[in-house]
Amino acid sequence: MSNGPLSTSLFALAKKYIPGGVNSPVRAFRNVGGEPFFVRRAKGCRIWDVDGKELIDYVGTWGPAILGHAPLPVIEAIHNAAKDGVSFGIPNPYEVEMAKLICEWVPGVEKVRMVNSGTEATMSCIRLARGFTGRDRIVKFDGCYHGHSDGLLVAAGSGALTHGRPDSAGVPAAYADLTTVLPYNDVAALEECFEKMGHEIAGVIVESYPANAGLILPQPGYLAKLREITQKHGAVLIFDEVMTGFRVAKGGVQELENYSPDLTAMGKVIGGGMPVGAFGGRKDIMDMLAPDGPVYQAGTLSGNPVAMAAGLAQLREMEKQQGWKRLDELGAIMEEAVLDTLKQTGRNYQWYRVGSMFCLFFTETPVRNLTDAKTSDLVSFRKFFHHCLDKGVYFAPSQFETGFISTAHAPEDLARTAEVVREALLAL
Ligand SMILES: Cc1ncc(COP(=O)(O)O)c(C=O)c1O
Ligand SMILES: N[C@H](C=O)CCC(=O)O
C-alpha cells in the first residue's frame, strides 16, 4: 500500500529524529517493504490511520488489546485512577490487588513483583535464577524472544529475527557465552545439553508457546520433559508468558498444560495497554529478592497505579464476559474459514492456532522449530501482507510474528477477513 500524505510526511520527519523512524524495530515494515502507517485512533478491532484509512487489526498492539482497543471499562479505570495521581513511588492499594489476582489465577505463582515491561520481567527472572542456584548458565531456545536484555538477545526471535539480527551487536561475547541455545521441540538436544553441563545450568527460559518466530506449539510430552529435566538437575524452569499469559487461558499456558514452572514472566494483557510487566513464582525463590534477600531488583514506576488500574479492569472484564471462551469460539470461526480458503486455493500452507493466537506459515513443511519456520516463502508472505493491507486487513508486518483476535472482533469482521485472505492467496 502506498501510504497517504500524512503518514508519508510523518515518517520522513520521524526518520530525522528517531533511529529508523520507529521506537521498536518490528514497526518499520523493513521485511515486507514499504513504510509504516501512523495511527490516529483505535477502537474495538479497528484502527484508523492519520489519513483516514480504516483497518481491521490483528496485531492488537502486539497482544495487550485482548478486549479490543480502548474498551470502556479500561478507559474509565484509567481516568479514575489518574484523577488521584499518576505515580507515587510509595505502595498503593492497586498493586496489592493485582498481586493477589495474579497469585490466584496463575498456578505457578505464589508471590509476584511488578515491573514496567516484559523485558524487565524476563531479565529479572534470569538474575533470580542465577542468585537462587549460584550458577551462571542459562538455556534458551532458537527463535524464542524474551525482550532485549543482553543475555537473551542470542538466537532471538521477533524483530531480531525479522531484521536478520538474532544476535545483537553490543552484547559482550563473555556474557553471550553464558547462554546456551537449543532447538525447540528436540528432546535429544535437551538431554545431551543437561548431560554435559547440567551442574552449570541456573535456568531454562522458554516461551511457553513460542510466538515470536510465528506460532510454534510444543510436541506432546515436550513441556513435561522440560519440567522433569530441570527438576532433576536443580535448574529453575522459567516460563515466559509475556505473550500467552492471561490470553490463552486465565492462568496462561501453565493452566492449559498443567505444568507449573518455578518462575513466570508476564506482561502485555495485565497492563490493559499501559506499560507493564510482572514476574513471579515459587515463594522460596521470590523471597531471594531485595529487600528480603540478596538479589537486587527495583523500579521507580513499578506498580504504577494507572497501569495497575487499567490491567485490573481489563482482567475483571475478561472474567465477567467469559472472554477466553469467546476468544476460542472466534478463533475457531477464523480457523474454519482459513482452512477452507487454503483448500479452495490449493495452498498447503501451515496454519497454527491456540485460542485467539494464530499464524499462517507460507510453507508446506510442518513447523516444529525455527529451522522449519525459516522454510517459509517470504516473498509470497510479503505480497499477501500488502494485498490484505490494501483491502483493509492489518496482519503483523512479518512472517515471524503471531496474530491476535480480540473479543471485539465480530463474526462479520472475521468473515470480511476470510474474503480478503482468499483474494490475497488467489493473487499470489
Ligand atoms: C514472549 C515475550 N517475552 C518478552 C517480551 C518483551 O516484552 P516487552 O516488549 O514488553 O519488553 C515479548 C515482547 O516483546 C514477548 O513476546
Ligand atoms: N513480537 C514482539 C513482542 O511480542 C513485538 C513487540 C516489539 O518488539 O515491539
TrEMBL record:
It comes from Roseimicrobium gellanilyticum. Pfam families: Aminotran_3. This is Glutamate-1-semialdehyde 2,1-aminomutase. The keyword Disulfide bond does not apply. InterPro entries: 4pyrrol_synth_GluAld_NH2Trfase, Aminotrans_3, Aminotrans_3_PPA_site, PyrdxlP-dep_Trfase, PyrdxlP-dep_Trfase_major, PyrdxlP-dep_Trfase_small. Its cofactor is pyridoxal 5'-phosphate. GO terms for biological process: protoporphyrinogen IX biosynthetic process. It is found in: Cytoplasm. Belongs to the class-III pyridoxal-phosphate-dependent aminotransferase family. HemL subfamily. One of its GO terms (cellular component) is cytoplasm. Gene3D superfamilies: Aspartate Aminotransferase, domain 1, Type I PLP-dependent aspartate aminotransferase-like (Major domain). Its EC number is 5.4.3.8. It catalyses: (S)-4-amino-5-oxopentanoate = 5-aminolevulinate. The modification N6-(pyridoxal phosphate)lysine is found at residue 268. Homodimer. One of its GO terms (molecular function) is transaminase activity. Pathway: Porphyrin-containing compound metabolism; protoporphyrin-IX biosynthesis; 5-aminolevulinate from L-glutamyl-tRNA(Glu): step 2/2.
